[in-house]
Amino acid sequence: MKQQKTEQGEQEVRDAVRQARTVVVKVGSSSLTKPSGHLDVERLNSLVEVLAKAKQRGTSVVLVSSGAIAAGFGPLGFDSRPQDVSTQQAAASVGQGLLMQHYETSFARFGVRVGQILLTADDTMHASRYRNAQRTLQRLVNLGVVPIVNENDALATNEIRFGDNDRLSTLVANLVRADALVLLTDVDGLYTAPPSQPDARHIDFVPDVDQALAEVSVGGSTSGVGSGGMVTKLEAARVAVSSGIPVVLTSATHAGDTLEGNQTGTAFAPAAHRDSSRRLWIGFAANPRGSLVADQGAVEAVLGGKASLLSAGVVEVHGEFSAGDPVWIDDESGNHIAKGLSGFDSEEIPRTLGRDTSQLKRLLGEEYAHPLVHRDDLVLL
Asked: Is 183 helix (H, G, I), strand (E, B) or coil?
């Protein structure tokens, strides 16, 4: 999904963060740990104090916190983050309990209760699990609890995982219909190049994140304890602003200033329009089970934004899926142009291909005379 044109300026974005009724705050491992890899309780307590003050001002807070693996590998006797999956999972199992223990103790100083939510990518890819996660998170927020969300690193594998909590934070922001997303890291915002380079310039405001992704030179994680980097943060910002959510990227030490609307870090302007939860799930969380290959006429109609994908314009079907499952819509060169929910089981589709609505009614019956993907269930990429 590409960002739609926005008319918000920098101050409006920062005001939106300050006035947010619900804000999602993501903090990375490097912002919560010492260079040795052990959890830095002083840093954690400082962040909790900032978030507790935001709650006292009437803002509902959802915290997406990394740090389980980093908190665990020190107590297990490792000098640095383990590289193999099974040891990372073991470290996460030990570290997640330590992390939550410190969060519970720290938030309790301000009379704030917390709840733990561990998610895997699989939980967001399936519509029913996505709705379950959404209901739980919204109920916790309504009860005045601060949900603390992390990827379930103890069970997630490299095959199906978020890979970093930047992407997870944008999905959580959509799950709770957040009014703002704050990405906390170990640098004070976005630069035109890695900050270590002498010609790097700080960027205060990004009106178009798609353009920034094309023009800014960024790198991966250098902390040794995190799994993300500026690339993943820019991608997270792109997803959030495309969902209509304003974003500020800044260092954890400036979290308080950010939530108070002060000029710090980099602000990203949101798209003017925010889609429904259903369409946001299709666009950003759903995992396609197959693909429908459209001819040039159908591609142009779909890209126009108002047309359903009809059998008459589809030339091939790939994969095995059921009606209601997400699928890619591809052009004949193999490029993904959209995602959508299939109106048919995959085995039903071949006999419908190339036929218009009247032919479908006459040859296969009334029940086949509807789009392969209805425009209301279709999201452009």
From this structure: strand
Distance, in Å, from the CA atom of 90 to the CA atom of 69, rounded to the nearest integer, reads 8
- How many other β-carbons are positioned within 10 Å of the β-carbon of residue 113? 12
> Which H or E run contains 63?
strand 60-65
pLDDT at 1 over 60: no
* Consecutive H or E run containing 290: strand 290-294
Residue 257 C-alpha from the chain's centroid:
24
**Mean pLDDT value across the chain:** 87
Alpha helix locations (H) across 185-342? Answer: 209-215, 230-242, 255-259, 277-280, 296-303
- Looking at residue 143, its amino acid is L
Tell me the pairing of strands 326-330 and 314-319.
unpaired
pLDDT digits 0-9 by tens, 97-148:
999 999 999 999 999 999 999 988 777 777 788 889 999 999 999 999 999 9
List 114's β-bridge partners, or say none. Answer: 146
The DSSP 8-state label assigned to residue 352 in this structure reads G
The strand pair at 22-27 and 180-185 is best described as parallel
Residue 127 token pair: 């519509």
Look at residue 341 and give its three-state secondary structure: strand
Least confident of 75-84, 202-211, 236-245: 75-84
Strand partners, 73: none
Q: Which of helix, strand or coil describes residue 10? A: helix
Max CA separation in the chain (angstroms): 72
Q: List beta partners, residue 181.
A: 24, 247
**Burial state string for 20-46 with b = 16 or more CB within 10 A and e = fewer than 16:** bebbbbbbbbbbbbeeebbbbeebbeb
- For the chain, domains (ranges, CATH) are 10-280 (3.40.1160.10), 288-380 (2.30.130.10)
Element (H, E) at 55: helix 41-56
Q: In this structure, what are the phi and psi dihedrals at residue 264, rounded to the nearest 5 degrees?
A: -155, 155
HSE-up of residue 273 (Cα within 13 Å, Cβ side): 9
Parallel, antiparallel, or unpaired for β 60-65 and 202-203? Answer: unpaired
